[in-house]
Amino acid sequence: MAHYIQLKTHADPRGKLTVAEREIPFAIERVFYIYDVGSSDRGGHKNMGSKQVLLCLNGSCIITIKTKEGETTFPLNKPDEGLFVDTNEWHSMHTFSPGAILLVFASASYDPSDYVYEV
After folding, report:
1. Residue 57 DSSP code
2. Residue limits of the Sugar 3,4-ketoisomerase QdtA cupin domain (predicted)?
């Protein structure tokens, strides 16, 4: 089930350093990021075998999750807070602010047969 994950952040007068690898609840097999989206939507699918953690490193966006139980929206606007998306959770990323950068950690390498576009 989709839920927020708080990442460990170390802060001092020099700035902040956020650590992700120990907070991600799976072995990371794929890393990618989405940016310069404009008014487009991204995603619009579910993954049958891959879990993901999404982090909006800069700016903000909204993630919509649809399951047989219903639809939930998750705003992402903190670089130390990620969203865990489980397998079989249809998701779309939208309403990107100018300059938004969305980082995605995935539990499996890219495989087009893993994607299902129907809700």
Report:
1. E
2. 3-118
pTM recorded for the entire structure: 0.93
CATH number at residue 40: 2.60.120.10
26: in domain: no
Domain assignment present for 38: yes
Q: Hey, is 89 helix, strand or coil?
A: coil
Residues whose CB is less than 8 angstroms from the CB of residue 116 and which lie 6 or more positions away in sequence, other chains included: 45, 46, 47, 48, 90
The domain of 36 spans: 1-8+32-103
* Cα–Cα dist 87/38, whole Å: 27
pLDDT tens digits, one per residue of 91-119: 999 999 999 999 999 999 999 999 999 87
Give the list of residues 6+ apart from residue 10 with CB closer than 8 angstroms, or none: 16, 17, 18, 19
